[in-house]
TrEMBL record:
Keywords: Repeat. It comes from the Eukaryota. PPR repeats lie at residues 15-49, 86-120. The keyword Transcription does not apply. NCBIfam families: PPR. The keyword Repeat applies. Belongs to the PPR family. P subfamily. InterPro entries: PPR_P_subfamily, PPR_rpt, TPR-like_helical_dom_sf. This is Pentatricopeptide repeat-containing protein. It comes from Acer negundo.
């Protein structure tokens, strides 16, 4: 961030690649609020974010357990008629939802993809091989996502 501040003070305008690199680095360091501030600064300085920026931002939020923020961000992107959701952004969000045990929401997003435009790729197709099972337990419903291979369970959580 020191180099970034020095660039700004010397009136050197960072481009989208510089911002993407900084945002990714801040997320890796767990500095989510700083990454969000930098994203806002980027737009303040009229540097247009690209699909790589949105993917990095969604992925960074999910990896730092800000899945609800990532979901809100995703919905904002969906509502923007100038932007088309990419499969990479969708994959990051589906992964984040699964890891935060929001299996039903991930499942709904997965099945909405073909209707929203992104064509599922190899990463997304992995989800297609899963089977969703539910059964009643004392605590509520138990959802188990089972990989296509017999007996191999990938996720299990109470909802």
């Amino acid at each position: 961030m020191i180099l970034y501040r020095e660039m700004i003070s010397k009136r050197i305008r960072p481009d989208v690649v510089n911002y993407n690199t900084l945002v990714i680095g801040l997320f890796i360091m767990g500095r989510v609020r700083d990454a969000q501030k930098l994203f806002d600064e980027m737009q303040f300085y009229d540097v247009a974010p690209n699909s790589s920026t949105f993917t990095a931002f969604t992925n960074g939020l999910c990896k730092n357990d800000y899945v609800q923020d990532a979901l809100d961000f995703f919905h904002t992107l969906e509502e923007n008629p100038k932007f088309h959701i990419t499969i990479e952004i969708s994959n990051c969000l589906i992964d984040g939802l699964c890891k935060s045990r929001r299996i039903k929401m991930a499942w709904k997003l997965f099945h909405r993809l073909p209707h929203k435009g992104p064509v599922p790729d190899v990463v997304t197709q992995h989800h297609d091989q899963w089977e969703l099972y539910s059964r009643r337990t004392r605590k509520g419903k138990l959802f188990v996502i089972r990989n296509g291979r017999k007996g191999h369970f990938s996720k299990c959580c109470h909802i």
